[in-house]
Amino acid sequence: MNSPRFLSLLTVLLFAPAVFGDDKLPRVAETFEIAGHKAFVYAAPKPAEGRPWLWFAPTLKGVSLAGRKMYFEGWLKAGISIAGFDLGEVRGAPGSTAKFTEFYDVMVKRGFSPKPILLGQSRGGIMTLAWAFRNPDKVRAWAGIYPVCNLASYPMKNKAVTLADYGVPEAEFRARLKEFNPVDNLQGLLASKVPMFAVHGDYDTLVPYDENTRLLKERYEAGGGQITVKIIRGEGHKATPSFFECRELLDFVLKTVSHPLNGVR
User: Where are the beta strands (DSSP E) in 161-201?
Assistant: First the structure.
C-alpha cells in the first residue's frame, strides 16, 4: 500500500504544472541605456490590448515596485507592463523632464501605449507630475503613494538637490515657483481629463499630506478633475501594507486600462 507521504509527493508532482508552470512573469527586468541612463522594463507576458504600461518613479538602480508582490503580479498578470528610467535624484525641472521624454519616446517606438499610467512614490510624485503637466496629452492616468506634489514642500527640505536639478539660484527658483510647480499647472491635465488616485498617511511628517496630496486634490477638484484619495489614518512615510497592498490603487490601475480614454488604451 502506498504511504501517505508517497501519495502527497505524487499529488504535488501531478499538479506541479498547474501550480508552478503558470508563473511566467519576468523576474528580471530588461535593461537598456538612453543617453547614458538606464531604463528598466518588466514586459507583461500577455499584453492587454494596446500594450499598456505603468511608468514608476523614482527608479534608482532598479524598479523597486518589482518587490511589491500585490502590485507587481496583479498588473503584469492583467497585461500591464511596468517600466522606469533612472535619472537619479531629480525634482521635475524642465531639463530632467525632457530626458524623461526621451525614455517615453523609446517606449512608444518599442510598441508600448502612447499613454502610460504614471505612478510616483514619495519624491517620484514630483517627477511624474512634472512630466505629466508638461505632457498632458500623453498621460492615461496618474497615481501616487504618499507623493510629493508641491515644490514648496519636501523639495525645499533638500535645496541643494532641487536647485541642482533646476540649475538656478534659490531666489530665481522661488520667483519662478508657479511656473515650475505641478500644483500650479493643472490646466492641461484637467483639459485631458486625466484621472488621478493617491494614497497618503495623515501622520506623514516627511511629505505632509496637507501640503501635497490634499493641495493637489483641492485644486484638481476645483477645476472639475477626477481624483480619488485614500487617507491612511495614523500612518506616516513608511513601507507598510497600507500603501503597498492598497486594493484601491491596484483596482484604479486595472480599471483605467479596462476603460479606453479618448480611444487610446
Answer: 196-201
